[in-house]
Specification:
By secondary structure, the chain is an alpha+beta fold. Helix content is about 65%, strand content about 15%. It has a four-stranded mixed β-sheet. The longest helix has 20 residues. The radius of gyration is 20 Å and the shape is elongated.
Length: about 180
């Protein structure tokens, strides 16, 4: 997958520069939508069909989006289609989000909890984690009952695992060694 990331990076960087000159939040939403559409297997199969023209593919993708394409976004989509790079949209979306977070001094935080967390618990946990990681966090909370208790937090390449399952695994390792 490193090849896809390498090829997608210049597209994401160029798109980010255009977005910085305009409305970054609006561009972020649009790029996220394009990434979701570009990740769909049926869209990719349709785009690979040699009997379908690039303009038909562009029109189909535009019809699947909630927000209308700006002229710049339309040019971007047409350029990807002309170069046969529509499959890069999900990776471009990922790298665009990383660039946006970096510019804002933020990071995505995957919070996996053993139990459902209330909004108040999430906001309190995020406030504590923001102090620990020294940056603003965009939480993505999921529930995994196999953790037994506690939470597991992944921010970039840093992992904070305070789950009961992790503690039991540490005890098992200590007892068997």
């Amino acid at each position: 997958m490193a090849e896809i990331a390498t090829v997608a990076r210049p597209y994401a960087e160029a798109l980010f520069r255009v977005a910085q000159a305009g409305n970054l939040a609006q561009w972020s939403d649009l790029v996220s939508e394009l990434a979701q559409v570009g990740a769909h297997a049926d869209v990719l199969a349709y785009a690979r069909n040699p009997k379908v023209s690039d303009s038909d593919i562009a029109a189909t993708i535009q019809s699947l989006l909630k927000s209308p394409l700006t002229p710049e976004a339309n040019n971007f989509l047409n350029m990807l289609l002309a170069n046969g790079r529509i499959e890069l949209l999900p990776e471009i979306g990922t790298q665009f989000a990383l660039l946006k977070n970096s510019a804002e001094g933020a990071a995505d935080a995957d919070i996996i909890s053993a139990f459902e967390l209330s909004a108040a618990q999430v906001s309190e946990l995020v406030a504590t984690l923001e102090k620990k990681f020294s940056r603003k966090l965009n939480p993505n909370v999921t529930v995994d009952p196999s953790l037994i208790g506690g939470v597991r937090v992944v921010v970039g390449d840093e992992v904070l695992d305070t789950s009961v399952r992790a503690k039991l695994q540490q005890m098992r390792t200590a007892l068997t060694s």
